[in-house]
Amino acid sequence: MEKIFKNKTSAQIMALFAMLLWGSAIPMIKMTYKTFDISKTDSGAMTLVAGYRFVIAGFIVILYKFLFDEEKSKPINFKPTLYIGTALLQITIQYIFYYNGLSKITGVHSSIIQSTNFLMVLIFAHFMMPDDKFNLKKLICVILGLVATILCNYGSRLESGESSLKGEIFIIISTALNALGTVVMRKWAGDENTYDISIFQFVFGGGILIILGLFTANRIFIMNLKGLILLIYGGFISSTAFVIWYLLLKYRKASRVGVYKLFIPIFGSLLSVIILKDRFNPYLVEALILTSSATLFLNSNIMERKKN
Questions:
Q1: Which of 26, 88, 193, 261 gives 107 a disulfide partner, CB atoms 3.0 to 4.6 angstroms apart?
Q2: How would residue 159 be classed by pLDDT, with cut points 50, 70 and 90?
């Protein structure tokens, strides 16, 4: 696994695959709400759905650990502050905002807001990572990302006509927490076993979500086959994408892999159009060009200082 993620080309492919999985989460969540007949005001039921998804993800990562972890025989180096802190940040708090925000705006609109994740990762990395400082090259990428965000956001409002300030704020907060978590994992969890910390985050963070959901839901929804399949797929998305992402952070710079999160809104928007029948936004074409350009530019040797 180390060889795959240290190789630039294979690391890029794995990053894009993880972004595709995360992009598909938006229609999956929307379909889950519809399947369980969860109203936009029942934040407790949404939290409960998130909890079930992440606990399932935790068990899938246990399987991945058994199959792929080259260090599975080593004892777990449990660090309470790091493990509990990142579980609350990356899973519990982030997804309370995300699941509730997503219920109030379209999948396309939510996807577009999430494109700011790339900008936030670069900013957090500048202040928290000594070897990942801001420079002119990163500034250009940020500008490209901002232009893409503005174009898509304007276009989605024109096309969909569905907007909620509360929903937008919740998604922005969720995106900021995700970006912060990305840098925190890179800074303090680079030497941790990816599988161990992922399992704890999913099971502990998801367990907290389930407890909160059970106590706050307006009604407890009844499980059905379609809903169970959606939850299992949601668990697969989280477990697979998170493991790939943490391995990328372990072997690559946060700002170098963070740029790939710009593809989540592209994939999420396209899948929302196809699956949820959200109105197609022609501005997505411009956004795709800009995000692709930013990704290629940041990962190129252009404007890189030569090491003597």
A1: 26
A2: low
